[in-house]
Amino acid sequence: YKTPHATNLRETFMSLKKLQKQKEEALEMQRFDDAIDLRYREVELEARLNELREGGNEADNRPRVTPDDVAEVVAMWTGVPVSRIAGEERTRLLEMEKAIRHRIIGQEEPIKAICKAVRRARAGLKDPRRPIGTYMFLGPTGVGKSETARALAEFMFGSDEALLKLDMSEFMERHNVSRLVGAPPGYIGYEEGGQLTEAVRRRPYSVILLDEIEKAHPEAFNMLLQIMEDGHLSDAKGRRVDFRNALILMTSNIGAKLIQGANKMGFATITEETPESREQEYEIMKSKVMDALKKTFRPEFINRLDGVMVFRSLSREEIALIVELELRPLRMQMAEQEMKLELTQGAREQIASAGYDPDYGARPLRRVIQNSIQDPLSEAILEGRFVPGDTILVDYQEVTRDDGSTAEDYTFEVSDHRTVDEVESEEADAIEAMLQ
Question: pLDDT digit string (tens) for 27-40?
């Protein structure tokens, strides 16, 4: 498995499979020029793979275990990434903002600040005693604060399982705070460990999200002060838990009433204003929220934060982009049934309008998509109106009901139908014609 010959063989095989997948995607998107280039590279890799399968001698096949091999195995066992920064990861870190923006819409300032903190940590230039970063997220609900934490966990540590989320409203009482580090000896739950310390001890490379931090008991803030300053905390068993490789994010509803009560921040009026006026409104809202923050938290707590990020309210254009993000899982589910889903501009605008609330941000979007798109689609598929190979077009237009009245509603029609054999035949003919 770890011989040089086997390594080359495995890497070539994986590269070939990846290339074939890219070629299939290019064909599906009808990017035939790209498909031809990928086909030429595929032929070269196939020839290389055949040479490797036929070649190799006993001297080359002697197992050689390197320090990188050991680090790779340890990383697989513990979930701790290999510390050495490879060239591929360097590029990935430099383009971190671009990757996060694919999931978080309209929040440039928080994304840039956190990406800079991550790059400092991975380059070895952060304070070695403190966590990767400690940030407070403020702003309206439903604008991406929690989703930002999930996106960071997936980008930094490869899985959203690296996200540890704690609802701090569960720690409003003094006796509940001990659950963070574990119950004292002799009490129920002593053997289980603390909800915070045990999770970080088992997975030190993680993103910690403390939701509604303002509701926590003051004793919880004393623990956080130690983590933010010294980078460690002792649990009930006396074990020292290291937080230096964790990214700590906190969300708060401080100033939410100020934001909801500001008529100018309403969704309907924002779309009629200029970018300059929106920026001015954001600065006014940010100033009010920061004043509320200073009245709520102690100065020593605020001073230990690496940054306070005030998330913006979302515009109509940004909501339309989020509609596409929310539709992506549905498109993938339909692709598994060999169906395609397309929406007209009118349908997208109606979903964006119905799914946005100034007080709840984009949270209602998922419910609107479920009620307006998924439920009618499910019934139509079960009734046999749509079959594999169909391209379903969703529109929002005036329809006539059974009683003769008219009203605007979503419509579902088959805009195209192609069987799997037809698709494969067309792709093969197109490639053959271009190769000639």
Answer: 877 787 888 888 88
